[in-house]
Amino acid sequence: MKIALITGVSKGLGESIAKLFLESGIHVLGISRNPNNRLGKIAQKNNVNYQHYPCDLGNISEIEKTVKKIKEDVERYSPTIFYLINNAAVVEPINQVTLIGNQELTNHFQINTLAPIILMNSMLQFSTNSNNAFIGVNITSGAAERPIYGWGAYCSSKASINMYTKTAALEQDTLKTGHKIVAFNPGIMDTNMQQTIRSSSKDSFIEIDKFKGYKENKQLRDTDTVGGILIDILNDEASIENGKIYNVNEYF
Ligand SMILES: NC(=O)c1ccc[n+]([C@@H]2O[C@H](COP(=O)([O-])OP(=O)(O)OC[C@H]3O[C@@H](n4cnc5c(N)ncnc54)[C@H](OP(=O)(O)O)[C@@H]3O)[C@@H](O)[C@H]2O)c1
Q: Which of 6, 19, 205, 245 can bridge 85 by disulfide, Cβ–Cβ 3.0-4.6 Å?
C-alpha cells in the first residue's frame, strides 16, 4: 500500500499533486490551513482515503502536534512506500532586503525552510524505524539559482532547501537506507502565488512587468500538467536520482 503526505493541498500545485495521487490509487494525507473539499470527493470516487490536517506551518508547536498525529495515522496503514511532498511555500515578503522586517523574515523561513526540513527529518526517521521505503520531494524554484531584485527571502529559502535536499540524500546514500530525497522545480504556473507576485509594486519588485507578461501571454503552465510530470518521475522509481534537483522545463 502506498501513502503520500503533501503540504499546501488547499490550492495550486499541492491540490493537483494530491488529486493525481488519489486518482492513481494512493492514500493522501494533506496539510494546509484551509480545507479542500474537492479532494475528499475525488478520494471517495477512487476508493482511497483522504485526510486533512489543518496546520499553520509558520507555527512550530502546531507542526510538532501534527507530526505526532500523522506518525500515529501512517503507522496504521503500514505502507510499503511513503511519499512526502513538501510543496507549501510563500513568496512574501517581496521587498529589497534592507526593507524587510525581522518578523516577516522569520515567518517566511519558518514556512519555506524550517517546516519542510522538520517534516522531512521526521518522516525519514519514521520510515527507517518502520522499515518502509521513503521518497521525499521538496518543491523548489528557479529562484534558488538566480538572484531576483526584491526576492531576497524567497531566493534564499529555496536555495537553502536545494542544499538541504543534496545533503540529506548524501547521508541516506552513505547510510544505505534506500530512502530517496529530491527537489522539483515546477517552473512558472498559473496559481495564487503568481497573483501575489503581480500585485506587488514595481519599487519592491522591478521585474513585475515581465511577470505580468507571463500571464497576459499565457506562458504560465497549469498545475495539473506540472503535477503530472512529477508523478511520472516518481512512478519510474528505479530511475530516481537521489539528491537531484529536477527541472520541469527538461520535460517539455
Ligand atoms: N506558482 C509558480 O509560478 C511557482 C514557481 C516556482 C515554484 N513554485 C513553488 O511551487 C509550490 C506551490 O506553489 P503554488 O504556486 O501552488 O502556491 P499557492 O497557490 O500560493 O499555494 C500555496 C499552498 O501552500 C499553503 N500554505 C501557505 N502558507 C502556509 C502555512 N503557513 N501553513 C500551511 N500551509 C501553507 C497554502 O494553503 P493555506 O493557505 O490553506 O494554508 C496553499 O495550499 C511552492 O513551493 C512554490 O514556491 C511556484
A: 6
C-alpha torsion 238→243→248→249, nearest 10: -110
pLDDT score recorded for residue 109: 98
Burial class (CB in 10 A: 0-12, 13-18, 19+), 226: buried
Q: Are 104 and 93 in contact (CB under 8 A)?
A: yes
Which residues are CB-contacts of 35 (< 8 A; sequence separation ≥ 6)? 10, 52, 54
Q: Give the contacts of 10 (CB within 8 A, at least 6 positions apart).
A: 32, 33, 34, 35, 36
Q: Which residues of the chain have pLDDT under 70?
A: none
User: What's the CA gap between 241 and 249, in Å, rounded?
Assistant: 17
Phi, psi of 221 (to 5 degrees): -80, 155
Q: Check: CB of residue 59 under 8 Å from CB of residue 107.
A: no
Residues designated catalytic: 154
Measured distance CA(144)–CA(234) in Å, rounded: 22
Cis peptide leading into residue 93 (ω within 30°): yes
**Which pLDDT value is given to residue 32?**
99
**Can you read off the three cell numbers belonging to residue 204?**
519592491
Of ligand 1's atoms, which has the minimum distance to the CA of residue 12?
16
CA distances (Å), 24 to each of 20, 31, 231, in order?
6, 20, 10
